[in-house]
Known about the structure:
Mean pLDDT: 88
Structural class: mainly alpha
Amino acid sequence: MSVITFVTFGIDKFLALKSLRRISEKRLHTLSLLGGFVGALFGMAFFRHKVSKKEFYLKELAIIFIWIIWLVFYFLDYNRLNFLDVG
């Protein structure tokens, strides 16, 4: 999914440079949310695409945060995270 997202960011950057019809930000965010958040980060950095748009950048950071939280709860034993449980 990250490869697809990375390529999509590259295509959108190309379309922007040629003043052609663009890929919607909603679609770019959806690709990130579906698992392409690493590709989105690399695409933003490599193509220097969407990095100056603060709102877009903050939404991507929120998506990354959601994925980090999900991965922590998925891969770690929940009981080890529940430090308030004294039993």
